[in-house]
């Protein structure tokens, strides 16, 4: 009879361990469900924000600095760093440099 009682004791321990494991698994699944619902809400919020955003534009409003005009550009250089001659005005009043792709040196701008 001692073998039967030892077997029953081990069986009861095994059942207790299985119950504890099932409780932990159930808790883990509940946590996962809550996390998934939170992620679904966040994706929905992002979707609503993206729907309301205009296509082809920047996500925030851009503002032109007060008094910002192209006349404030004092230096022109090429991508290679070569400094070009002082630009001349054409008939439309636009500053041009003959046959070159010039960019405005933004380091000299006041903003």
Automatic annotation (TrEMBL):
Residues 97-111 have a biased composition (Polar residues). This is Uncharacterized protein. Residues 85-111 are annotated as: Disordered. The keyword Coiled coil applies. Residues 22-49 form a coiled coil. It comes from Hibiscus sabdariffa (roselle). Keywords: Coiled coil. It comes from the Eukaryota.
């Amino acid at each position: 009879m001692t073998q039967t009682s030892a077997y029953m004791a081990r069986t009861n321990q095994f059942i207790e361990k299985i119950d504890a494991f099932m409780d932990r698994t159930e808790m883990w699944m509940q946590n996962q469900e809550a996390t998934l619902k939170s992620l679904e809400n966040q994706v929905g919020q992002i979707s609503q924000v993206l729907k309301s955003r205009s296509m082809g534009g920047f996500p925030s409003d851009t503002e032109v600095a007060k008094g910002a005009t192209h006349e404030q550009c004092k230096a022109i250089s090429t991508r290679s760093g070569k400094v070009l001659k002082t630009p001349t005005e054409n008939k439309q009043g636009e500053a041009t440099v003959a046959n070159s792709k010039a960019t405005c040196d933004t380091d000299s701008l006041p903003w």
